[in-house]
Amino acid sequence: MFDKYFSQRRYENAHFNFTNLFMWRNIYSIKWAEEHDCLVIKAAYDGQQYMLQPFGPDEAIAPVLEAMSSFFARENLPFVIRGVEKFMVDLIEAWRPGQFNFTGDRDNFDYVYHSKDLIELKGRKYHSKKNHINSFLRSYRNYQYEPLTPEWVPHCIETQLEWCRKKGCDDDPTLQGENNAIIEVFTHWPELNLQGGLITIGGKVEGFTFGEQLNTNMAVIHVEKANPDIRGVYPVINQKFCEHAWQQLEYINREEDMGLEGLRKAKESYYPAKMIEKYIVAFK
């Protein structure tokens, strides 16, 4: 049902797919309904309730926005829509001209790269990435890249739990929530129809990643985790996964940086081809 709505038009927001909503549904209190031939999704985080943009044909957007507005009013909640793509900004403005503030949510802009760049790492700007990869290849000549097939799932869960112990997930609600979301995906791996890859060293899984095709020429990487004590394993699994799973697509969406300085620096270091802008919509 979700895929029906997400395939009706081109979406580039990394969150607009069933997997993302499913794995984060508990953390964000995801609720959904069908209204006026549209999919409507409500969420809540950090004490604020909001909705995502409606998913449906252009002619249904105005009536479904009216229904969403009525819901907010009935529940005595402020009208807030988050993660809004630029084309939807224009449709919302056309619905009630001059009544909304549209605020760019920079911390949640998605980083999109040319897949060819992530695979080939050509040029001086990727020199440090290649150094890390070469160091890894020298140190771990017995490494293997494997597709993430069902028999590897228990081993990836072990790797995730070990990562959590090293990072102190028990003392960090955000990391614990992410851990639960990842385990949820692995628990339902066959049903979700995702693509994944992993790195083994001496037969032990030291890193894994998974994602899916988002639209006709773009993949989205949902998760990438690896042993933080192994230099170079992150750029290796990034490169190998893109090469083996996504080289036929033009773009790779590696999601947002959430305003975290270290994550922003890491994502910028791969030189994105473009950013997917997202907006917060609220009445003036």
From TrEMBL:
InterPro entries: Acyl_CoA_acyltransferase, LPG_synthase_C, UCP018688. Residues 13-281 form the Phosphatidylglycerol lysyltransferase C-terminal domain. This is Phosphatidylglycerol lysyltransferase C-terminal domain-containing protein. It comes from Sporomusa termitida.
